[in-house]
Amino acid sequence: MRRKSQARSVVVFTIALLLAAPVALTSSAQAAPPRVARDPAVITNWDAIAVRTIIVEGLKPPPVAQLYLGFVSAAMYNAVVTIDGRFSPYVEQPRPHRHASPEAAAATAAYRLLGHYFPASAGALAADYQASLAQIPDSAAKRRGIRVGEAAARAIVRLREGDGRDAAITLDVTPGPGVWRPTPPAFAPMLAPGWGSSGRSCWPPRPSSDSPGRTG
Whole-structure pTM over 0.90, yes or no? Predict the structure, then answer.
């Protein structure tokens, strides 16, 4: 759980840095795209909206909530780096041919992904989304950013289809020492037993033992 939280924090921090960074200079052979103000607050705002939607309104317990929060972070990351172009996206998607608003892309990616998994929160999410878009001047870049964000959300949803997180798993074991069983006083069933393997599928391959990037 700690590793998941640290990795998610790195993703959110990376997106914020990308939005805070100045627009990269183009070569003299290229026309400079219109400069659009970048505000990393859109990331932290939608991170808070995701927590409210998933945990407070969706009532997802911590192991399950962490995976959905990771989906939101991945969608926003994908949207921003697809526009920025300096980093590899989590999932490949078409890049916009012209400048697009990363704020509109990030907000749209989070909005569409949360709306897909938590339709009961559609009203609150729509209000949050309109508030986010209202802070971005109307322009072609804004419209392109919205399209990029929609594509990013679809890419993450498509990637996670059939990952087994909702599979029915029963406790078919013989009781004995060291074997888990429901405990008093609630004798509650297992909490999200299939989410360990589902969550691990989000991680990239670990470095080999002789890799310079491996520390432990």
Answer: no
